[in-house]
Amino acid sequence: MTVNDTNSTERPRLGEVLMQRKLLSADQLDKALKIQKEKDELLGQILISLKFVEERDIVVALILQCGIPYISITKFAIDPKVLKLVPEATAQKFHLIPIDRIDGILSVVMVDPFDQKTRKELEHTTKCKIVPFIATLSEIDAAIAKYYQKGNK
Predict the structure, then answer these.
(1) Taking a C-beta distance cutoff of 8 angstroms, is the pair 51, 58 a contact?
(2) What three-state secondary structure class fits 146?
(3) Are 58 and 113 in contact (CB under 8 A)?
(4) pTM of the entire predicted model
(5) Cβ–Cβ < 8 Å for 33, 5
(6) What average pLDDT values come out for the chain (153 residues) when binned by 10 residues?
(7) Which of 117, 3, 121, 129 is nearest to 59 (CA)?
(8) How crowded is residue 40: how many other Cβ atoms within 10 Å of its Cβ?
(9) In the chain, what's the furthest Cα-to-Cα distance?
(10) Main-chain dihedrals φ then ψ at residue 80, nearest 5 degrees
(11) HSE-up of 149 (CA within 13 Å, CB side)?
């Protein structure tokens, strides 16, 4: 599932938010959407790879689009017990990292907080309700490398 595939008529689409913020032209959006149909990748990642926008622009647009909070995970200390709830391979595959667990609620920083399939899989695996947060792909991947490596020592 991609950010623009969610079934909400209330929420503006990612491309629309970026165009409203004058960070993206209609032509750039059209080009990225054509690539997305061919490659089945996240629109935000395509826009970044085309150098139309930066990672931070996507994160800000997602926050404005859906109200899911941003967490700077580079400044976050993650308990190794929480990391054990999600295997490293899962974290790498879906670009996500668990950051905290309180009772039956697991806070997870995700590059695609709209990915319902992944969220359901995490809920099944961890037996926790998943509360998503947003961070950039590079921040998440750096945190995965840092924390899972630390946990394997």
Answers:
(1) no
(2) helix
(3) no
(4) 0.80
(5) no
(6) 45 90 96 92 93 93 88 88 94 95 95 91 95 93 90 51
(7) 3
(8) 8
(9) 49
(10) -55, -30
(11) 6
